[in-house]
Amino acid sequence: MPPAAPAVTHRGVGGGVRSAAQLVFRSFPFPTEPGLRVFGTPDRSSPVFVTSNFDYTVRLVSRVLENYDCYLLVAPTGGVNVWCASAGGHFGVDEVEAAIKLSGIGDLVDHHRLVLPRLTAPGVDPKEVRSRTGWRVVFGPIDIDELPGWLDESFPRLVADVVTFPVARRVEMGIGAGLWPAGLLGVPAAIIGGWQAGLLTAGLAYVLSVLFAVAYPRLPAAPGLPQAVPLAGVLGVVAAATAWGSGGTVFDIVFWAVTLALMGLLIGLDFPSWSPTDVCKQQLLCFLYPATLAPAGFLPTVDEPACVDGCDICVKICPKGAMTLQDNHKATLLDPDGCLSCFACVQQCPVDAIS
Per-residue b/e over 268-282, b at no fewer than 16 CB within 10 Å? Predict the structure, then answer.
């Protein structure tokens, strides 16, 4: 069995710099070493948690688990965060099995129960995990801040949980998401219009990314193209009017109109793919990442004869609360518009009654 790595949370100046770098460049993988982390003085009945090897995630989880006697298995997900890794096919049964084997956790505990993040449900099939490893999967809460309450009150019971995307998280994502339009437009803008135009374009991309992050859930149109096209049009018109009003040349008017329109289009299309409330619905994301488990627009269908009466696993596992039990105690999709097309209900149905 390989030696357990110490549980390090990286607080202080070094941790602050690392967090800042991961905030701005969070679209890039930030891997940390997979394997076993030990917290406190666990015994053979202590809980075993699993997470991705995205460094920021491991540090967040560690800050909560350091108050418990437990084990943490860091799965080799390529340095990608839990939700993106699961929805993109990088956090599945293979990665869970690898984490078990890499850690030698079977020699340290008498039980065979793993606590996985709720947002791995689209990618992890508990039936296959148990068949291949002998370990049973339990899903904890969506938000890491809710983990202590769940451990004290509900562990290991599955409880209903709905994903949220509060403004603070949206701003964080906006800062990171702004890197793409800043780079994709800033460099060409500098080549065509000069370095000042390039810097202004990059700066506007960052500011607009953060502003869009705050506003996009409240916009009347649906995320994706319905938001991106009007945003591009408005920005293009405003940019052209501003350039014309300031006495700019025809080149200036066209240059800024096209640059700002493209900026709005890129941000409007890309940002929802960062959101756990919209990510799996995005046509663009599914085109760019064909490993995504469900096609865009997928809606689950329940085979009622096969569905177990009163089984509510799909209802509780749905991150948007879109599933419910009918009067006949069979599961059904209550809210098609709220469905994320994330595939979690399909993966978690114990009798494969959902497709």
Answer: bbbbbbbbbbbbbbb
Q: How do residues 28-78 score in pLDDT, each as one tens digit?
A: 788 899 999 999 999 999 999 999 999 989 998 999 999 999 999 999 999
Question: Comparing C-alpha atoms, which of 28, 26, 85, 73 is closest to residue 47?
Answer: 73
CB 145 within 8 A of CB 79: no
Residue 147 to residues 91, 150, 159, 242: CA-CA distances in angstroms?
20, 5, 12, 50
The answer to whether 39 and 66 are in contact (CB under 8 A) is yes
Domain boundaries, the chain: 5-153, 167-274, 284-355
Question: How far are the Cα atoms of 194, 212, 220, 258, 291 from residue 254, in angstroms, in the given order?
Answer: 15, 24, 29, 6, 39
Say what the pTM is: 0.84
- CA angle in degrees (0–180, nearest 5) for 117-14-65: 30
Contacts of 258 (CB under 8 A, 6+ apart): 236
For 304-327, how does the pLDDT look when each residue is reduced to its tens digit (9 = 90+)? 999 999 999 999 999 889 999 998
Residue 302 is given by DSSP the state B
Contacts of 78 (CB under 8 A, 6+ apart): 29, 31, 53, 85, 90
DSSP string, 152-209: HHTTTS---------HHHHHHHHHHHTHHHHHHHHHHHHHHH-HHHHHHHHHHHHHHH
Fold annotation for 5-153:
Rossmann fold (3.40.50)
- Identify whether the C-beta of residue 80 lies closer than 8 Å to the C-beta of residue 56: no
Is domain 284-355 in CATH 3.60.15.10, yes or no? no
